[in-house]
Amino acid sequence: MTQARYEITVGVLALQGAFNEHVQLLRQATNILESNALDGISWACIQVRTPQELLLCDALIIPGGESTTMSLVAARSHLLDPLRDFVKVHRKPTWGTCAGLILLAESANRTKKGGQELIGGLDVRVNRNYFGRQVESFEADLDLPFAASADSTSHLLFKAMFIRAPIVEEILTSVKGEQVDEQRRDEIVIAPARKTIEGAARDFVGGSVEVMARLPNRSSGIIDKFKATQPDGAAGDIVAVRQGNVFGTSFHPELTGDARIHVWWLRQVKEAVIKLRPRS
Questions:
Q1: Judging by beta carbons within 10 Å of its beta carbon (0-12, 13-18, 19+), is residue 235 exposed, middle or buried?
Q2: Which of 41, 70, 103, 167 has CA 20 to 30 A from 252's CA?
Q3: Helix axis angle, 260-276 relative to 19-36, nearest 10°?
Q4: Which residues fall within 8 angstroms of residue 73, CB to CB, at 6 or more apart?
């Protein structure tokens, strides 16, 4: 017997950037999940431009684009604080790609104060535009074991697109409140603190940042002072991380037509929503 049917709503922040591409891959991914599952869950995907639309969401994607523009439009749309509450107070699943990763970082460098506001949620420092200008964009094959599934493409490398991409420069120690030590650095902005509500959301507080993917053999052409810190001694730039319900990638899965990461992420969303919103 299948479980009682209910709906999970996934939003895509649609202020600027590649939100349409994410919507298309989400629909492809939800079709895969719904065709292969008997759990009684259905999926809805909406574009988010207002606080009222954000309230409808169980999970959210922040797409690639221009992080500074997104933060400015979010502030003018009265969305910036609701986004911070969504991620850091209610601890709902959130995925940021490229610019979205920058916005979800607790600290971002090579940034003038007042020119960029952050949402936060990932205890990392990101290096904006690490690989240079748009003309220096590139594709690379990544090994992503977490995205492997039972389908016929699970063994294939993932062709990732890096467009003015950031990297995770350093994994920060988790602290209560703001990352105040980061403020002593030049050209750094940090995210404001938020206190998580009581209840199931507390289960997703804390924990270390998990490195989900690295890009090998690119740093040799980058100026040494901008090289990523590798606390575990592993080789390669950090290009995907997860901490609790928050996931970030430096690259643009939405531009590939390959839904494997979206399918994987939706499975994580389902598990989190079951904990955060028990069925009656």
A1: exposed
A2: 41
A3: 70
A4: 15, 16
N-to-C CA span, the chain: 17
Tell me the per-residue pLDDT of 173-227, one tens digit each, with 9 for 90 and over. 888 888 878 877 878 899 998 887 766 666 666 678 999 999 986 544 443 333 4
- Is the CB of residue 180 less than 8 Å from the CB of residue 123? no
pLDDT of residue 88: 93
Token pair 């971002």 in the structure block, residue: 108
- CA–CA separation, 83 and 120 (whole Å): 9
What does the block give as tokens for 36?
């292969």
pTM of the model: 0.87
> Two tokens at 162?
């890096």
Q: Round to whole Å and give the CA distance between 18 and 21.
A: 6
pLDDT digits (tens, 9 = 90+) for 23-58: 999 999 999 888 776 667 889 999 999 999 999 999
**3-state SS assignment for residue 30:** helix
